[in-house]
Amino acid sequence: MKHKFVGVAILCAILMLNIIFTQYMVHQFFYENYVNVLIFCGLNIVLFPIAIYSYNKMKNVKA
């Protein structure tokens, strides 16, 4: 795979994880499991800088 496709695949995987974590967080909030809500909220917050780092790394690669 070319470098740009690998970067796009990584960003898509991070987006998929964000969607999954958000959906699980909303589900746990509905059932009042607030510890799980905080855990998955924290995971969403951690994924954001990882996505920015991945994007900057991908942007600086010359194809």
Oligomer: single chain
The proportion of residues forming helix, as a percent range, comes to: over 70%
By DSSP (H or I, 4+ residues per run), the number of helices equals 2
The count of strands amounts to 0
String of helices and strands: HH
Mean pLDDT: 92
Give the CA-based shape: elongated
Structure description:
With 63 residues, the protein is mainly α. It has one domain (14-59). The protein is built from two helices and no strands. The chain has helices spanning 3-30, 34-59. α1 (3-30) runs antiparallel to α2 (34-59). The longest helix has 28 residues, at 3-30. The chain is elongated and about 50 Å long.
Provide a compact summary of the structure.
The protein has 63 residues and is mainly alpha-helical. It is built from two helices and no strands.
Topology summary:
Layout lengths: L2 H28 L3 H26 L4
Helix pairs in contact: 1-2
List keywords for this structure.
mainly alpha, 63 residues, single chain, 86% helix
